[in-house]
Write a sequence for this structure.
């Protein structure tokens, strides 16, 4: 069986090659994203594998159906980038990796908070430049602060546990409270209460029509002056121009993001010798109190191993005609 792996990155290839060793699958790696044009490359492939920024639209699915692809294997948990109805109509099975390491993403959210608060990124550069001055590096104790968490599923729950370990009060908002979080002492609140009380707000819910621009101008206005906003979930949860306005007015105290609404055209690529035309992204990188990473929260050895193993297991289950729990 042949699988065309779109958006393949150098760092993940060895993990995929290792996972599929000794199986009947032949993997071919394709660096480019899946688009209506690159979908034509899937001629002769039974399955394709895609990642977060591959837009699996109805137009793409039409081409995939034409060239005979039967399965779309997502190497990620979120599937907001897939037109599931079109896939179903095209007779294609879609599988995903529902959880590969909640620790990887939750720990990255914590790394962002610590770096933003204690200015580690600035201190690193200063010291390398022989500048040992402390001006501008003032932070605050996390101990005793109130952390608000939106979405307490697998990643949000790990994040809550870590923040409880720092001695923070953790408040959460979710459509379905998590018993493990309640046992940790996490208290559930309405969204309005959470926004008003959190010193740090961290987003861990999926991007759906209900959560699109959850953090908009009105939500930002309800946040505590000087609070931090952290997003390691999906860029579309935040209305970027509204966040830029809140940073300019100094109502928002800091922003740390690993995801960006329009990231698909930029993230995972080295564009250091190119002019980046996205004014919002470029504006964000000019604020002293904004930290942006390029969708790397998942990037740990453990997560890449689990993604590769789960993708292999999903494809093998479908090929054997067995029910697959990870089928969407
Ligand atoms: P999960 O499904 O285990 O948890 C999501 C939680 O969000 C659930 O508890 C759900 O009830 C809650 N939720 C859904 N709609 C909500 C709403 N309207 N308001 C409040 N809560 C709501 O998912 P997870 O594995 O914890 O992943 C969370 C998100 O993290 C994913 O959807 C994905 O977008 C993102 N993610 C990012 C990276 C990265 O590298 N940056 C990696 C993996 C996942």
């Amino acid at each position: 069986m042949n699988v065309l792996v779109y958006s393949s990155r150098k760092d993940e290839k060895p993990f995929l090659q290792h996972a599929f060793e000794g199986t009947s699958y032949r993997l071919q790696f394709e660096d480019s994203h899946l688009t209506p044009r690159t979908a034509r490359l899937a001629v002769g492939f039974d399955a394709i594998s895609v990642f977060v920024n591959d837009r699996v639209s109805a137009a793409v699915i039409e081409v995939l159906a034409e060239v005979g692809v039967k399965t779309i294997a997502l190497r990620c948990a979120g599937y907001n980038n897939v037109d599931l109805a079109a896939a179903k109509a095209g007779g294609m099975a879609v599988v995903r990796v529902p959880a590969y390491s909640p620790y990887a993403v939750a720990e990255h959210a914590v790394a962002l908070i610590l770096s933003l608060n204690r200015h580690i990124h600035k201190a690193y550069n200063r010291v390398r430049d022989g500048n040992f001055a402390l001006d501008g590096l003032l932070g605050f104790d996390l101990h005793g602060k109130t952390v608000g968490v939106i979405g307490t599923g697998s990643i949000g729950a790990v994040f809550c546990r870590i923040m409880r370990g720092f001695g923070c009060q953790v408040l959460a908002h979710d459509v379905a409270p998590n018993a493990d979080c309640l046992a940790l002492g996490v208290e559930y609140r309405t969204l309005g209460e959470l926004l008003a009380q959190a010193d740090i707000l961290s987003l861990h819910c999926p991007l759906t029509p209900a959560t699109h621009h959850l953090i908009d101008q009105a939500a930002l206005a309800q946040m505590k002056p000087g609070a931090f906003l952290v997003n390691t979930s999906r860029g579309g949860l935040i209305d970027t121009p509204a966040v830029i306005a809140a940073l300019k007015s100094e109502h928002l105290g800091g922003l740390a993001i690993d995801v960006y609404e329009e990231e698909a055209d930029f993230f995972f690529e080295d564009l250091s010798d190119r002019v980046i035309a996205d004014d919002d992204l470029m504006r964000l990188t000019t604020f002293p109190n904004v930290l942006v990473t390029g969708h790397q929260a998942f990037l740990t050895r453990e997560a890449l191993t689990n993604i590769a193993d789960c993708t292999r297991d999903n494809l093998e289950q479908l090929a054997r005609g067995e029910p697959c729990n990870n089928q969407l």
The longest strand covers residues 146-150. Residues 57 and 83 are 5 Å apart (CA to CA).
